[in-house]
Write a structure and sequence with these properties.
The structure is a single chain. By secondary structure, this protein is of the alpha/beta class. Helices cover 37% and strands 16% of the residues. The strands form three sheets. The protein has an eight-stranded parallel sheet. The chain has a three-stranded antiparallel sheet with strand order 2-3-4, with no helix packed on it. Strands 8-9 form a two-stranded antiparallel ribbon. Helix 3 runs parallel beside helix 4. It is globular, with a radius of gyration of 19 Å.
C-alpha cells in the first residue's frame, strides 16, 4: 500500500457554489481548460491537478502509482483570520466532508481535518471530537496570526494532540513573511515556504514541545523546509548559549528526530540525507498535489534513491499506515 500523506483538496461543500452567502468561500472554475481558484480577491492558477473532485484526484494518484491519498484542506482554508463562529463553521464543513469521503472510499482515502487554532482550547476540543469521527488528525499552518507553534499559547492543543494520537501535518501558510523580496522571482514559494516551516519547527524544538510531549505525531511538510539545514546551528547554540538551552534539556537533535517529514524536497541528495539523519521510519511519501510545486512522480523519486527494501517500503507507505492506524493492505482504518 503506497500512501501519499500530503495531498490537498477543496471539498465541494466549502465552495461558494455550496453557499454563496459566505464571502470567505472559494470559487473554482475552468478558464480555457485551466483550473482557476477565486479566493480573497485573487485568481489562483497554481493548482495544475484536480482540486475538488475526489474521484478524479484518486485517478491521477493511481496513475502515479499511489494507492491511497491522505487528503487535507488547502492551507488557505485553515480559517485563522475569521471570527470564531465563522471559523468553527469552516472547520466543521471541511471535517464533515472529509469524513464522508473516507467513508465513501475506505481503502483509498484517509484525511486530516482543520481546527480553529487561533483559539487553542477550541482547537483542542475539535481535535478530541475528530478522534471519534474517523479522521487521522489535522493540518495546521506553520504560523497563526504571527505566532509560531512553539509558543506556550498552543500547549493545550499539543496536549490534546498527544492524548488523541492525532497526526498533525504542519504546512506553511504561503504568505508567512511580508517582505518585498519575497514578491519577486517566486521566492515567496521557493524560499518563504521552507523558511516558515524552519522557523516554526525550530521554535517547537527549542521551546521543548517535543520533549514535553514525546509521543506527538507531527509531520513537517516539504521535508521540513529549511529546518534540516540549520540543525548544526541549533546544536551549536544549545551547547553554550543559556537562552538557547533554557527550555530544552537534551540537545535539539533528539527533538528533530521525534518529528516526521514528508518527501517533497525536489532534490535526491537532500532527501537521502534527510532519511539518513531522521531515520527511514520518520519520512513519509508526499506529493503536494495538486500544485505546480508538487511532485508528479513521488514514488519514482523515492525508488530512485536505492534504499534497502525495508526502508523504501517504510517511506512509501508503512510509516503512514502506522501513524494513521491504517490497514496496510487497504481495508480501511484500524483506529
Amino acid at each position: 500500500m503506497i500512501i501519499d500523506v500530503h495531498a490537498h483538496i477543496i471539498v465541494p461543500e466549502i465552495t461558494r457554489a455550496a453557499d454563496p452567502g459566505d464571502a470567505w468561500r472559494p470559487a473554482v472554475h475552468r478558464d480555457g481548460g485551466a483550473q482557476v481558484v477565486e479566493f480573497a480577491g485573487r485568481s489562483i492558477r497554481s493548482a495544475v491537478g484536480e482540486f475538488v473532485r475526489a474521484e478524479e484526484m484518486l485517478e491521477e494518484a493511481a496513475a502515479a502509482g499511489v494507492d491511497r491519498l491522505v487528503l487535507s484542506p488547502w492551507v488557505n482554508l485553515l480559517p485563522y483570520d475569521l471570527d470564531l463562529p465563522a471559523a468553527w463553521r469552516a472547520c466543521r464543513v471541511q471535517n464533515d466532508a472529509l469524513t464522508a469521503l473516507c467513508a465513501a472510499h475506505p481503502s483509498r482515502v484517509a484525511a486530516l481535518g482543520a481546527v480553529p487554532l487561533q483559539d487553542p482550547p477550541a482547537a483542542a476540543a475539535e481535535l478530541e471530537r475528530l478522534a471519534g469521527q474517523g479522521l487521522g488528525g489535522v493540518e495546521v499552518a506553520a504560523s497563526v496570526a504571527g505566532a509560531w507553534l512553539g509558543d506556550d499559547r498552543f500547549l493545550p492543543f499539543w496536549e490534546a494532540a498527544e492524548a488523541t494520537r492525532a497526526v498533525i501535518l504542519v504546512h506553511p501558510t504561503t504568505r508567512g513573511f511580508d517582505l518585498p523580496v519575497f514578491q519577486a522571482y517566486y521566492l515567496w514559494n521557493t524560499v518563504g515556504n521552507p523558511l516558515e516551516t524552519a522557523v516554526t519547527g525550530a521554535s517547537m524544538v527549542m521551546a521543548g514541545v517535543l520533549e514535553r510531549f514525546p509521543r506527538l505525531r507531527v509531520v513537517l511538510a516539504h521535508g521540513g523546509g529549511a529546518l534540516p539545514a540549520v540543525r548544526g546551528r541549533l546544536r551549536k547554540a544549545h551547547g553554550f548559549q543559556p537562552e538557547a538551552r533554557s527550555r530544552l534539556a537534551d540537545g535539539p537533535d533528539a527533538s528533530l528526530r521525534r518529528l516526521h517529514y514528508d518527501t517533497v524536497t525536489h532534490d535526491p541528495d537532500l532527501l537521502r540525507d534527510l532519511i539518513a539523519y531522521a531515520g527511514a521510519d520518520r519520512v513519509l511519501l508526499g506529493s503536494d498535489r495538486p500544485f505546480d510545486m508538487g511532485s508528479a512522480d513521488p514514488v519514482g523519486e523515492v525508488r530512485a534513491l536505492g534504499l534497502k527494501p525495508e526502508a523504501e517500503g517504510a517511506v512509501l507507505g508503512a510509516n503512514a499506515a502506522r501513524l494513521l492506524g491504517l490497514d496496510p493492505v487497504g481495508e480501511g482504518s484500524m483506529r
